[in-house]
Amino acid sequence: QVQLVESGGGLVQPGGSLRLSCAASGIIFSINEMGWYRQAPGKERELVARIISGVGTTYADSVKGRFTISRDNAKNAVYLQMNSLKPEDTAVYYCKIDIYWGKGTLVTVSS
Questions:
Q1: pLDDT tens digits, the chain, 111 residues: what are they?
Q2: Read out DSSP for the chain?
Q3: What are φ and ψ of residue 59, in 5° steps?
């Protein structure tokens, strides 16, 4: 059974940085997508960034130039480096690897 474990969330001041990590336990034979989504209070879950095999990387317009997604295929892991964080980045961040979802990690940007 595949499980995704996220880490790296927390409280950070505006302008600060955080790095989210997500690793999959179990065997995933063919990974097409690795990505990060987020859901802010009262809002729908939205795409933050994702890597699709053979296609490339996609970022939400709101995070372009500030966030960077990367992956480690050998570890079945995906990362999200978040810089210049803003209060509007506050949300629960979920990783997605193939068809599997993590449980989410809370990121709070506040002074």
A1: 889 999 999 999 999 999 999 999 877 767 789 999 999 999 999 999 999 988 999 999 999 999 999 998 888 899 999 999 999 999 999 999 988 999 999 999 999
A2: --EEEEE--EEE-TT--EEEEEEEES--S---EEEEEEE-TTS--EEEEEEETTTEEEE-GGGTTTEEEEEEGGGTEEEEEE-S--GGG-EEEEEEETTEE---EEEEE--
A3: -125, 145
- CB atoms under 10 Å from CB of 78, counted, come to 29
- One-letter amino acid at 84 equals S
Q: What's the rounded Cα separation, in Å, for the pair 55 and 7?
A: 27
Spatial distance between the Cα atoms of 98 and 35, rounded to a whole number of angstroms: 9
